[in-house]
């Protein structure tokens, strides 16, 4: 029938030898049979006979797959740091690291060449076991010291990998030093805002400062992905985590929003405004679109502002995360940030507001709706 053969995987866990197992992992269709399986407290890594690597988040039931860069008869799969980093070796003597997002890291020698034991040891033996001598959490060393066992009775050797992979924070910094922004974001998608919000915030703090420091059209996609991990996550975020972290995310969103306005990316700015649900944000987007004759988005903002004026409440129907990520406290914080950017003039400096508006209406022939918008803008500021 020329049908491709598929395989099914089930990983079971028996607690205290119970007769009924708890199924942790189930993959209904695999392209080839399983060659190696390693498990940690929350992740399962599979290596298939066709050199496909599969990373499975057992808690959130999310899986990723990628073809391994080593494709010649893989000889082993080992955890280097639980729930973070693992290694793969092949019969040609090559060794490579992967994180749980399946980002590859080559061990590089001082000569800037990739590590290959056949070439440098001059022997036709492959790695069959890797053990880490020191726990990276307890060790103060920034290096990885690995004990290697080769096939056919030896030899046994030590290798010191000069990579600071003590924990996920050091791995984020390593990626940032090499400007591997996509690696950081891939790893960020692997984290859970409900259980690992501290790690999420720290990772975002690392990368967001660098992105805003030299922001350009090539980097805005990274900022958008960072915000999506919170506003449109792969798994639902608990209400408590949203309350803890929304102010942090909203501050980044406001800064990014004004960058989008400056670059005239009004569609992206509108999507961001839907998450922020802040009146000043909608007003600024309205005026920017009005100035540049973007009538469609301007009308959407006008509808949103009329809705807020009529009901005197914020609606969050467009919020994709299922829970409003703003509150009156967040809006007050956002207003403070904007007020710091735009100094407030009092009546003595500006004059009577009604006289100014009346003069503007007569001079610019403003209609009643624009008068309301101007008055609302002045009171908001």
Structural write-up:
There is one protein chain. With 381 residues, the protein is an alpha+beta fold. It has 13 helices and 13 strands. A hairpin with a 3-residue loop joins strand 3 and strand 4. Helix 3 packs parallel to helix 5. The longest helix has 24 residues.
Low-confidence stretches are 136-140, 307-328, 341-350
Helicity level: 40-55%
Amino- and carboxy-terminal Cα gap: 71 Å
The string of secondary-structure elements, in order, is: EEEEEEEEEEHEEEHHHHHHHHHHHH
Alpha-beta classification:
alpha+beta
Write down the Rg.
28 Å
Q: Please summarize the sheet with the most strands.
A: 4 strands, antiparallel
Q: So what's the overall shape? A: elongated
The number of distinct β-strands equals 13
What oligomeric state do the depicted chains represent? single chain
Number of domains: 3
Give the overall average pLDDT: 75
Summarize the structure.
Helices cover 43% and strands 21% of the residues. It is α+β, with helices and mostly antiparallel strands.
């Amino acid at each position: 029938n020329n049908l491709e053969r598929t395989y099914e995987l089930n990983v079971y866990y028996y607690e205290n030898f119970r007769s009924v197992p708890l199924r942790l992992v189930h993959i209904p269709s695999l392209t080839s049979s399983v060659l190696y399986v390693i498990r940690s407290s929350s992740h399962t890594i599979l290596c298939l006979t066709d050199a496909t690597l599969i990373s499975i988040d057992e808690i959130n039931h999310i899986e990723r797959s990628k073809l391994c860069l080593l494709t010649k008869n893989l000889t082993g799969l080992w955890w280097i740091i639980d729930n973070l980093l693992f290694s793969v070796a092949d019969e040609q003597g090559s060794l490579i690291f992967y994180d749980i997002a399946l980002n590859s890291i080559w061990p590089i020698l001082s000569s800037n060449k990739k590590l290959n034991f056949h070439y440098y040891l001059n022997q036709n033996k492959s790695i069959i076991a890797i053990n880490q001598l020191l726990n990276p959490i307890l060790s103060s060393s920034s290096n990885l010291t690995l004990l290697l066992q080769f096939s056919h009775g030896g030899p046994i050797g030590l290798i010191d990998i000069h990579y600071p992979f003590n924990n996920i924070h050091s791995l984020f910094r390593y990626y940032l030093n090499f400007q591997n922004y996509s690696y950081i974001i891939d790893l960020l998608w692997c984290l859970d805002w409900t259980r690992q919000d501290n790690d999420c915030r720290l990772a975002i703090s690392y990368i967001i400062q660098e992105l805003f420091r030299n922001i350009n059209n090539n980097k805005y996609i990274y900022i958008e992905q960072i915000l999506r991990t919170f506003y449109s996550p792969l798994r639902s975020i608990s209400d408590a985590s949203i309350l803890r972290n929304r102010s942090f995310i909203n501050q980044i969103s406001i800064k990014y929003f004004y960058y989008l306005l400056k670059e005239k990316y009004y569609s992206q700015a509108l999507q961001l405004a839907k998450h922020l649900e802040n009146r000043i944000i909608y007003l600024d987007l309205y005026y920017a679109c009005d100035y540049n004759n973007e009538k469609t988005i301007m009308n959407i903002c006008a509808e949103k502002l009329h809705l807020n004026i009529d009901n005197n409440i914020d609606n969050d129907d467009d919020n994709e995360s299922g829970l409003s990520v703003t509150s009156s406290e967040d809006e007050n914080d956002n207003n403070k940030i904007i007020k710091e950017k735009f100094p407030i003039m009092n009546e003595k400096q500006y004059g009577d507001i009604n006289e100014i508006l009346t003069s503007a209406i007569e001079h610019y022939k403003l209609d009643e709706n624009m008068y309301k918008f101007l008055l609302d803008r002045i009171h908001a500021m």
